[in-house]
UniProtKB/TrEMBL annotation:
Molecular-function GO terms, alphabetical: DNA-binding transcription factor activity; transcription cis-regulatory region binding
Organism placement in taxonomy: Bacteria, Bacillati, Bacillota, Clostridia, Thermoanaerobacterales
Positions of the HTH lysR-type domain: 1-58
Protein family membership: Belongs to the LysR transcriptional regulatory family.
Source organism per UniProt: Carboxydothermus hydrogenoformans (strain ATCC BAA-161 / DSM 6008 / Z-2901)
PANTHER family given in the database record: HTH-TYPE TRANSCRIPTIONAL REGULATOR (PTHR30126), HTH-TYPE TRANSCRIPTIONAL REGULATOR CYSL (PTHR30126:SF39)
Pfam families assigned to the protein according to its UniProt record, in alphabetical order: HTH_1, LysR_substrate
Full protein name: Transcriptional regulator, LysR family
Database matches in PROSITE patterns: HTH_LYSR (PS50931)
Matches recorded under InterPro entries: LysR-like_Sec_metab (IPR047788), LysR_HTH_N (IPR000847), LysR_subst-bd (IPR005119), WH-like_DNA-bd_sf (IPR036388), WH_DNA-bd_sf (IPR036390)
Amino acid sequence: MNRNQLEIFRVVAEKKSFSEAARLLHISQPAISMHIQALEEYYGTKLLDRTTKRVTLTPAGEILYKYTLHLLSLMDKAQRDISQAAGIIKGKLILGASLTIGGHVLPPLLSSFYRKYPDVNITMEIMNTEKVLERVSDLTLDLGFVEGEVTTGELHVEALARDELVVVVAANHPLAGRGRISWEELATLPLVMREPGSGTRKVIEERLQAAGFKLPELKIVMELGSTEAIKGAVEAGLGAAILSKWTVRREINWGIFKQLLIENLPIYREFYVVLNNNKFHSPATQALIQFCREHLS
């Protein structure tokens, strides 16, 4: 029996599914089965009942699940206390980030962090805000980075930086030299938007609603699942887009895009770091959060 087997057992017990546990832990389903079988052989009893629809704990499995939570907590505390006593910043961090902050804000910051803490191995997965929050909640991410308001009492949420969303058009667009645009003019433009569920789209909807406008009033001609795809569509002349300044800095500096501000409708949002209060936060996790505070504020 080892910690890895207990972690696998915990996820299977909580998700009631071998396939879902395999997806969350990024290992194969046969590997999940092998580790569970090893635990059952170790304890000499069946721990899980499997049907075609779900997995349930046996009475012995219920007992082991309770002890598993306690054992994992003790192991985490031991790791934290030893690392702190030795002044060690090392280990593996699994991060989740929504597309804007993960694709444009964090990469240079993580490069600087690695130069300062070369013994910390970081894996960053990019997904939409909803998925980041889900993965932080189910403890399969050490921490998450998202944009836009986060409303959940289960997670610790801390603002790290402010972002501004602006309208961008191709440099040869008829409105490219304007600098500003009215809501009425924006509503007539073909608009390329992110998909529902993305952090960018959510903050746009909320800001418009607060100002008395509605998203359906806009002429959305296409919804795309990545900022890079949207930028490609704008550059090709398909229409305008509302994007984070972080994501279009190069295109604006190179003269590919022109930026337009919506009159009397500034659109701001915060970048947040999100943690699960029920998860152990290693010295490496704490060091990364502090690094972000210092370099993004």
